[in-house]
Design goal:
CATH architecture: Orthogonal Bundle
Pfam families: ATP-synt_D
Order of helices and strands: HHEEH
Number of strands: 2
Shape: rod-shaped
Function: Produces ATP from ADP in the presence of a proton gradient across the membrane.
Keywords: ATP synthesis, Hydrogen ion transport, Ion transport, Transport
CATH topology: Helix Hairpins
Protein name: V-type ATP synthase subunit D
Strand order of the largest sheet: 1-2
Helix content: over 70%
Family: Belongs to the V-ATPase D subunit family.
Largest sheet: 2 strands, antiparallel
């Protein structure tokens, strides 16, 4: 490891020792942050996996139910039922902080009637159930989008933090330690040389 190009003086030694102390503290803080981010990433990744499996399973059931509904419902009525919105849905996006990282937060608000947008006699119970299943799944779809985006952002931040930790651990801190050791050695050499000169002067005076 190449040492820093500085003058071997006591002033530089003092500055470098202060920098080393700061670097060591920064390394510990970043390492602790990295460990906590990895823990939270693991929790969110598990939630993401479970939620994705749940959503995919429900989507498969919904598609199956749609097929059943279309087979027993007149085509024009099925198309009408599936095309008309039962209510107005508004997704409001904001951010929340996870270890200093802003991740998305999606709030869902719904307006309009709680019922379906057609008369009961116009549609079969199979089609009615299909539409209800889609409506019930929508909040989970939004939550899945929120979690997946957060997981990707956390993964990127963990990687960036890892590079900072490695730069401190394997580059900056060793450089500072080596430079401090070099300055101490040079200062000791200078002190010994000065002592030898003093002793020679005293020897001549005697």
């Amino acid at each position: 490891m190449a040492r820093l190009n500085v003058n071997p003086t006591r002033m530089e030694l003092k500055k470098l020792k202060a920098r080393l102390s700061t670097a060591v503290r920064g390394h510990k803080l970043l390492k602790d942050k990295s460990d906590e981010m990895i823990r939270r990433f693991t929790v969110m990744a598990r939630e993401n996996l479970a939620l994705r499996r749940e959503v995919e399973g429900e989507l498969a059931r919904i598609l199956g139910q749609f097929q059943v509904a279309r087979s027993v419902t007149p085509a024009y009525r099925a198309e009408t039922a599936f095309a008309l919105p039962a209510s107005s849905v508004r997704a409001e996006c904001s951010v929340t902080s996870v270890m200093g990282l802003d991740v998305p937060k999606i709030a869902l608000s719904q307006s309009g009637g709680a019922g379906l947008p057609y008369a009961f006699f116009e549609i079969t119970s199979e089609a009615d159930y299909s539409v209800s299943m889609v409506t019930a799944l929508f909040p989970k779809l939004l939550r899945l989008a929120e979690v997946e985006k957060s997981v990707r952002m956390l993964a990127d931040e963990i990687e960036r933090n890892k590079r900072r930790v490695n730069a401190l651990e394997y580059v900056m801190i060793p450089q500072l330690e080596e430079t401090i050791a070099y300055i101490r050695e040079k200062l000791s050499e200078n002190e010994r040389a000065a002592l030898v000169r003093i002793m020679k002067v005293k020897g001549k005076q005697q």
